[in-house]
Fold this protein.
Amino acid sequence: MITLTGKKISEGIAIGRLAFFKRGAREVRRIYVEDVRKELARFQKACEKAAAELQDLYTAMTKEIGEVNASMFEMQQMVLNDTEFLDGITGIIKEQRLNADYAVKEATNRFIEKYASRDASYVRGHEADVRDVESRILRVLARIRKEKMLIDEPVIMAARELYPSEAAQLESSKVLGIVTMFGTINSHTATIARTKEIPSVIGTGEALKKEYEGKMVIIDGFEGRIYIEPDQTTLSRMQEKKRTALRKTETLERLKGKENVTQSGQKIDVCANIGAKDEIESVLRNDSNGIGLFRSEFIYMESGTRFPTEEQQFQIYKLAAESMGAKRVVIRTADIGGEKSVDCLEITGENNPAMGYRGIRVSLDKEEMFKIQLRAILRASAFGSIAIMFPMISSMEEVLAAKSILEKVKQDLRNEKTLFDESVKTGVMIETPAAVMISGELAREVDFFSIGTNDLTQFTLGMDRTNRRTAGNFNSKHPALIKMIRIVTNNVHLEGKRISICGDLAADLSMTEQFINMGIDELSVAPSQILPLRKHIRELK
Ligand code: PEP
Ligand code: MG
């Protein structure tokens, strides 16, 4: 038996024979062209065909994996429309008089090399999407029809790397598991594997060898392990693990549609924290009571050197609102700064970024940027139940200033006769000790609160949340924190307002009972933590 290790991207156990994915890689030759104009036209036509194919794929995938997940192919459309990507290719054709195929390959390499390492580029972590586009254009240029995967028997799919469009077309009934040599955890391929619930492990490196083709393998998606030709003991252990996992899933599945109520009748909402539209699908799948925290700064992080436009943001917020229907979606305005740097707004010269120019301070300073975001959120509020939350609040003045800008934006929309929810609720994050101390006053100004225990711990203990050396002492359950949560809850409830916890502590099952007894109205956790938390709540006495 050989054991390989990698990164787990989709949980579960898969047992079957290994088959390598055949992409039909083509050799790309470097050829001089006589007629540059003709070559440019050939490339242009290939791009149009590739765009049409992507559109078809999007339509087909919307049916199979849902609109939210299918929208990841919009990113590939973005690559196909990226002027820098296209100029790189046409530049090589024009200036070096080389064939389109070679130009596509060369320019894609350069494009990835330039952007893959940039923190806030949309390419970072999504190199596979760019390669997917490259492979599509090359196939169209070579006039090869779409490859259809022909698998008779269900197999465990192995590949060097699997592109999102390839993963999207895998049939869950035919692909028991996925193992790849390379790839990233946050990639779209990983999202698809999770959506299709295919146990998957990536990043085994060269240890995954071609000679394993046809061999019996086990993928342990819980641990990120692959067993090639497992011995009898491992096989029995994994079969048992598979059965246990199945029983657990069935138990959690049964909780869907049920109330989050303890045995003595105390209720609490369980909502989801997300940072991207890709995650909405999993919010729905886990039957969340709403989205308690949409970290909108991730949209800015993914937008590269340009700010996300009002329209781009509107589409994302609208999708969230429509997908959740009557359930509430709390959009936190951009918490840029601190450990969340973005390329579209470079913040330099900070000695202490976590305590510096970040969150609401940036929004109030960059009023135009803030207004664009508020316009997008308000417009989306006409399509569901949206609430707006301000991050990193440390004074009443900040709240009043943010509300006053919000009022101006509302007035602009009214003047333009653009629809929005007039009763949209506003809330603030409690992430600083100052906000805790003035929570009573704040509760007279806003409708709801959410305690960000990650930052609140950082500022209360005076301990950097990103410092590995102090990680062992970074204790969100410190008595000081518990007292603070209690103070805020009482202050907020005295004014008849709602209080939620959305920091990591919300998912700590050892705290749930205490939170319920304090009267916390809502816990907001990662989508995958919803059902286990709900199970725990229902078991409490
Ligand atoms: C927090 O600080 O607890 C929080 C939820 O916000 P973030 O983790 O995005 O800073
Ligand atoms: Mg925070």
The first strand starts at residue 2 and ends at 5. Residues 431, 452, 454-455 surround magnesium ion (ligand 2) (CB under 6 Å). Residues 36-70 form the longest helix (35 residues). The mean pLDDT is 92.
